[in-house]
Specification:
Elements (H helix, E strand, L loop, with lengths): L7 H9 L34 E7 L10 H11 L3 E7 L5 H10 L6 E5 L3 H6 L12 H5 L3 H5 L2 E2 L2 E2 L1 E8 L1 E5 H6 L4 H7 L3 H10 L2 E3 L2 E8 L5 H11 L18 H15 L12 H9 L3 E7 L2 H14 L14 E4 L13 E8 L8 H15 L1 H11 L6 H7 L8 H12 L10 H24 L4 H16 L8
Parallel strand pairs: 1-2, 1-3, 9-10
Antiparallel strand pairs: 3-12, 4-5, 6-12, 7-10, 7-11, 8-9
Helix pairs in contact: 1-12, 1-13, 11-19, 15-16, 18-19
Length: 481
């Protein structure tokens, strides 16, 4: 999941336990963990020497970390000479832990993270290309589109866990009260003007309290999610055009900034939006303080249902002051007449090396472990927990016997958005991607947070981004329209 996109698991946990950031629920059955895919044995090396593979893993799904002991046992049963040593981390600190270990030259063999971080770690020289170690059976197990996200140039740097769409989520009751045809929106999408009008209708004041039309988490790392998701739908699906010009100096970028600020000025979003983190905006959604929330993944339907069940059972662990919510998946709006380009999140198991070149045997063992985590029963169990689509044949087969309760309208909405999903761009040079990430971290995120807080105007932010882009990419390396 930048990245970027990975606070959603901790949000889920808030849904499942009001007082804890860890996921709740009964422990999964032993039979639902461990990859037993047909292709798993294909990666077996001839060597029987003992080896340990380390993995740094956040709470990918609500019950994911609860299965760590069983995952390690199942992996050892599959490969008796190998040990999978898992270091758990929260979403809040996994990136910092990984960066600290990478900077020290001793990263874990495997780390879970967003595929968009691959260029950064390649530039640091410690990401391991597994092209020569991944077997044909492993590669052929995957859908092509998500696997491509784990590539850069001709290299493959791990295996994807899932491919999901960054969408919005609505309260069905509130949408219908506001006269919004949410099924039509699911099927056909909506423009910025249509979206703006809809969320205005969603603003209601009752007993001195305001229910907003739209709330998006923008505090901390979530700020770039909001901007990035909307930028894709504003004619800028990537930071770079096909001729490698930096895209966020386009006039569309300035127009987008004006539009996003306008939603706050309309009163459709809270003026204190800059203080809303992922946990708070999900709490606002479950307690009826907003009609639409973002970003939303399919798994949020599962989280809402879990909280609904607790409310029905009068379970004290339900989110305080929450109400029953029928969660509706919605696409993000399009801007400036651009076509829909759905933001996808492809997170996965990145493979690392230390300062010394790994042995052929250890490299093969790391690949076995990464594939074990990303396929078969492990992937099927995790992705069902997330309501995420299965991206390997082995996981799809395992999932056939697993029950999952999803709203068919939401399934269809996600499928529609996946048809417009932004495909991977492995052609962007690593050095350009690294510069773009640096510009995003040092300029875009703080300026956008200032914009949301009303401290920076859209023009001021645009000018700052353009100046930084010229410095990074040169006058001829940016879009001028």
């Amino acid at each position: 999941m930048k990245k970027k996109m990975h606070v959603f698991a901790s949000v889920l946990a808030l849904t499942l336990a009001a007082t804890s950031l860890t996921a709740c629920g009964s422990k999964s059955d032993t039979g639902k963990t461990g990859a037993a895919s047909p292709a798993a044995s294909a990666g077996a090396a001839n060597s029987t020497a003992k080896d340990t593979i380390t993995a740094l893993l956040p709470p990918v799904s609500p019950n994911y970390q609860k299965n760590f002991d069983q995952m390690a046992k199942d992996f050892n049963a599959l490969y008796p000479n190998l040990t999978l040593k898992i270091e758990p981390a929260s979403w809040e600190d996994v990136k910092q832990k990984l960066d600290t270990q990478v900077n020290a030259g001793s990263p874990p063999d495997i780390a879970f993270g967003g595929s968009d971080g691959i260029p950064k770690y390649i530039q640091q020289g410690l990401l391991m290309d597994i092209t020569d170690a991944a077997t044909p059976d492993m590669i052929n197990d995957y859908d092509k589109a998500p696997l491509d996200y784990m590539k850069n140039g001709k290299g493959l740097y791990g295996f994807p866990a899932y491919m999901e769409v960054h969408a919005l989520g609505g309260n069905k009751e509130y949408l219908e009260k506001a006269g919004i045809d949410w099924k039509k929106v699911q099927q056909n999408g909506w423009t910025y003007d249509e979206f703006r009008d809809a969320i205005k209708k969603g603003v209601v004041t009752e007993n001195g309290k305001t229910r907003y039309g739209f709330v998006f988490a923008v505090k901390g790392v979530a700020a770039v999610d909001y901007l990035g998701i909307m930028a894709k739908n504003a004619g800028m699906p990537y930071p770079f055009t096909s001729d490698m010009k930096y895209a966020y100096t386009s006039k569309n970028y300035l127009g987008l900034l004006k539009d996003l600020r306008q939603l706050i000025d309309d009163g459709s979003m809270p003026k204190e939006l800059s203080s809303v983190d992922a946990g708070k905006r999900w709490n606002m959604f479950l307690t009826g303080q907003t009609m639409i929330t973002g970003k939303g993944l399919a798994v949020f339907e599962n989280s809402a249902k879990a909280n609904n069940a607790k409310l029905a059972a009068k379970d004290a662990s339900a989110v305080k002051d929450s109400i029953p919510v029928d969660y509706v998946v919605l696409p993000a709006p399009t801007f400036q007449g651009a076509k829909a380009s759905s933001a996808t999140v492809v997170d996965g198991y990145m493979t690392f090396r230390g300062k010394k070149e790994p042995t052929t045997e250890h490299k093969a063992n790391v690949v076995k472990a990464a594939y074990f985590l990303a396929s078969g029963k492990v992937a099927a169990t995790t992705n069902n927990d997330l309501f995420a689509a299965h991206i390997t044949k082995s996981a799809k087969k395992e999932a056939e016997s697993m029950k999952i309760d999803r709203n068919p309208d939401n399934v269809a909405a996600v499928d529609n958005m996946l048809k417009n999903a932004t495909p991977a761009r492995s052609d962007i040079p690593t050095e350009l991607s690294a510069k773009a990430i640096k510009l995003e971290t040092e300029v875009i995120v703080p300026k956008f947070q200032g914009l949301i807080a009303g401290e920076v105007t859209p023009q001021q932010m645009y000018d700052a981004v353009k100046a930084a882009a010229i410095q990074a990419f040169g006058e001829n390396g940016i879009v001028k329209d």
